[in-house]
Amino acid sequence: MLGHHYTHTFVETAVASVNAGCNLEVSYGLRNNVFMHIPQALAMGNITLQMLRDRVRPLFYTRMRLGEFDPSAMNPYSSLDLSVVQSPEHRNLSLEAAVKSFVLLKNVRGMLPLRARDLSGQRLAVVGPFADNPRVLFGDYAPVPEPQYIYTPRRGLEMLGANVSFTAGCSQPRCQRYSQAELVRVVGAADVVLICLGTGIDLETEARDRSDLSLPGHQLELLQDAVQ
User: Fold this and answer.
1) Could you list the pLDDT tens digit for every one of the 228 residues in the chain?
2) Domain residue spans in the chain?
3) Is 13:38 a contact under the CB 8 Å cutoff?
4) What are phi and psi of 165, to 5 degrees?
5) Which of 30, 40, 93, 217 sits at 20 to 30 Å (Cα–Cα) from 127?
6) How many alpha carbons lie under 13 Å from residue 154 in its C-beta half-sphere?
7) 210 backbone φψ class: left, alpha, beta (φ>0; ψ -120 to 50)
8) Strand pairing class (192-195; 163-167)
9) Which residues pair with 208 in a beta bridge?
10) Chain-centre distance for alpha carbon 153
11) Cβ neighbourhood burial of 216 (10 Å; 0-12, 13-18, 19+)
12) Which CATH homologous superfamily contains domain 107-226?
């Protein structure tokens, strides 16, 4: 509210937030935050102690329901160790979630899905800035990924035994430098072409939005050249 000039001070913001029913502030890492000014607002009489208790109660109720205050023996997660991290069961579940989250907008002539048994005689081209760049595949608020567990489109197709050729066309999502000749060469020799385009956190994250929905840089040109 302060940044949007609805209020002028942190104390004023604390008063307005508590009165409006807000009971949680996302301020990790901020030394100067709003909730630290609540005691001052209370001392000034702008909010009451009962009001603060009413705001805090649902927070602690939720924490209790989550088991944060239970003895460790009652917590089923206490018995887990690092052996479950990236276990086959969890990786298979992640694969299932990824497969089921695909959105197929158009499937001309029933081309998809590509079946592994049909790929041995096919020449595949995987192109675009998202085709083989693990860093750009993760969105905002993602954990630090382990490279050995990241499967880019190129890596995934190569594991199927397909004859895969690759060129990024442009190395980063901004696509300010585009290698048209290399893209035409790779695409021209392929039976099937997979084009991997997008934005990623280089272009848009929380508090940083794009001004339009156009593909960035030369990405549209890359797409048109590949189709042509």
Assistant:
1) 777 888 999 999 999 999 999 999 887 666 778 888 999 999 999 999 999 999 999 999 999 999 899 998 888 888 889 899 889 999 899 889 988 998 888 998 888 888 878 787 889 999 999 999 998 998 888 887 778 888 899 998 888 878 999 999 998 999 999 999 999 999 999 999 999 999 989 899 888 888 889 999 999 999 999 999
2) 10-74, 107-226
3) no
4) -110, 155
5) 93
6) 17
7) beta
8) unpaired
9) 205
10) 17
11) buried
12) Glycoside hydrolase family 3 C-terminal domain (3.40.50.1700)
Q: Which two tokens stand for residue 179?
A: 């290698």
At which residue do the structure tokens 């935050």 appear?
A: 33
Model's pTM, two decimal places? 0.72
